[in-house]
Amino acid sequence: MRTPAVWLREGGLKSFGWSHKSTVRGSTAIASLQLYIAMLTQQQEVWRDDQLQLVCEETYNRLSEITGLSRALVAEGVEGLVLTERIQVEKEGRNNRYIFPDFQPGGNWCKLPARTLYNTRSRHIEAFQLFHKRTKCELDALKLFLFYAANRDNYSFHSMCSFETINKKTGVPEKRIPAANAFLVSTGLLMNIGKEQTQEGGRKKESNKYFLRGNREFFVGSKVAPDKVPATA
């Protein structure tokens, strides 16, 4: 699914944190990012007023089913996304329409795996059922998942970035990145991590490679020729 990428690459994820200084905090921040992912996997591209927009029209009940969040947390999470200007909400009767205002169809978007995130009946995102919505590690993991998606280039199955860059762009402290990565792997949101390589003398040759769940789907129907298919993806 096409996903607005500029805010993910340029530090927007720092708005979601655990301290009182964060715009959206704690379990609400976790709910917001889970809902953002859920809405993107259910979005449609719609022409409105001669403009192509990303629109999601799922109900609170459906968003609750997809994410495993209570209706109260769905409401708080939606509020967090509105507060950070990640979505706009339009009312239509008793239902909401969610619009992604920073979507640019001509570029500055990335791909997010959609179908492979769901269970076989496509009713919920499997990995989210393993979240308790109460820990920094879970919030860190969601931020890293979105950043890895935004950081992947069009020719690769993987994203490649250093701990320093991850910290700078997401606000996740370097010492917490390994635990967040491990959580992503344990929930299946990350399929594999290719460890960084070093040259003689201990100098880093390249950063870790991060393979998102469903990375093969990035090239289905694409005219772009990807790099070598990873054996573990």
What's the short version?
It contains 7 helices and 13 strands. With 233 residues, it is an alpha+beta fold.
Walkthrough of the structure:
The chain has about 230 residues and is an alpha+beta fold. It has one domain (about 1-220). About 35% of the residues lie in helices and about 20% in strands. The protein contains 7 helices and 13 strands. The protein has helices at about 5-10, 25-40, 60-65, 70-85, 135-150, 165-170, 175-185; strands at about 1-5, 15, 25, 45-50, 50-55, 90, 95-100, 110, 160, 190-195, 195-200, 205, 210. The strands form 5 sheets. Strands 4-5-7-6 form a 4-stranded antiparallel β-sheet, with no helix packed on it. A 3-stranded antiparallel β-sheet has the order 9-13-10. Strand 4 and strand 5 (about 50-55) form a beta hairpin. Helix 2 (about 25-40) packs across helix 4 and helix 5 packs across helix 7. It is globular, with a radius of gyration of 17 Å. The two termini are about 20 Å apart.
Provide the structure class.
Answer: alpha+beta
State the order of secondary-structure elements, H for helix, E for strand: EHEEHEEHHEEEHEHHEEEE
**Major sheet characteristics:** 4 strands, antiparallel
From the alpha carbons, calculate the radius of gyration and give it in angstroms: 17 Å
The beta-strand count equals: 13
Distance between the termini: 19 Å
Global shape: globular
What ranges have pLDDT less than 50 throughout 5 or more consecutive residues?
A: 229-233
Report the mean per-residue pLDDT as an integer. Answer: 87
**Number of H- or I-type helical stretches:** 7
Helical content stands at 25-40%
The total domain count is 1
Residue share in β-strands = 15-25%
Strand order of the largest sheet: 4-5-7-6
